[in-house]
Amino acid sequence: MKKRELLKLLGDFPGKAALEPVVLAEEDKGSYIQRKVEYASEAGERISAYLLLPKHGGKLPAIFAHHQHAGNFELGKSEVVGLAGDPDQCYAKELAERGYVVIAPDAIGFEERNDTGNTGGTAYREFTARLVQGSSLNAKAVHDITAAVDYLCTLPEVDADRIGFIGHSYGGQMALWYPAFDNRIRATVSNCRCISYAESMEKDIGIQLEFAIPGIAGWGDIGDLVGLFDNCSTLISATTQDKYSFGAQALADYIRASYPTQEVELKIYEGGHVFTPEMREYAYAWLDSRLKT
Question: Is 32 part of a structural domain of the chain?
Fold first, then answer.
C-alpha cells in the first residue's frame, strides 16, 4: 500500500525502450578499462555513461555511482570517474580499482544532458514540463537509473545478484531513494545528504527539484523510503557541520524503530559537506562486506 501511494504521487513513468547499447570509446586505465557507452533510456532518448571494467576474470559485483550536484551543471559522470572536478569525488574510479564494475551516467540536466550552460535551466525545464504532464522529475530520474542497472545486468562481467549504489550529496539523497524501486540493489551508501523533508522545511534549507514531489510530506519522509527497501543494506555517512546531514541520528533511530528488519548503519564524522579519503575508505570496506562475501 505504502509503495503504491508513493508511485501515485510520482506520477507517470516514461516507457521503457530496448537498450541497444554501443561503445563510443575505450581507454586502458591500468587496473581497469574505461569505456564511454551509450544506451536508450526511453524512445527517442539515449544516455551516455562511463563504464569501468576491472581486469579480472569471472563475474564481479557492480556499483551504480551517482554524481553530486554542487550547483555545477557542467559536471556529472566525469567527476566520479576522476576526469574532472574534485579528486575527493572520484569514487567510481576508486571502486573500479577495488574490483567493482561501475557505471556512472549523467543525471538529467548535468554535463552531456545539459543544454542551458551552468544555469540549472535544463533541470528546471524538465521539472516543470513533467509536473504539468502528470509526472515528476523524480520519476524520470528513477527511470533513467533503472535503464543503467538494466544495462549492467546484460554484461557478462557482472554478477546481477551483487549490485550496489553509492552517491554524495545529490547522489547521497538518491542512494536513499532508488533502492525503494529496485530490489536488485543489495547495498547502498548515502554520503552527506540524508536530511528529511521535515528538517529541510523547518530549517529553510530548500528541496532540490528532483525531490520536490507534490504531496510527499503527507505520505512520509526519507525513513519511510528506506522502509520500502527489499533486502538492501544501508550505510548513512554524515558529518557534524553539513546542513544536509542534519537529523542523521534521528533518521537512523526512526528507521530502526519503525522498520526493524532494515539493516541501517550510521557513521558520523567531524567536518562539512565532504567525502574525505577516510569516509570513502570506510564506505568501500562496508560495500566489500556486503557485496564481496
Answer: no
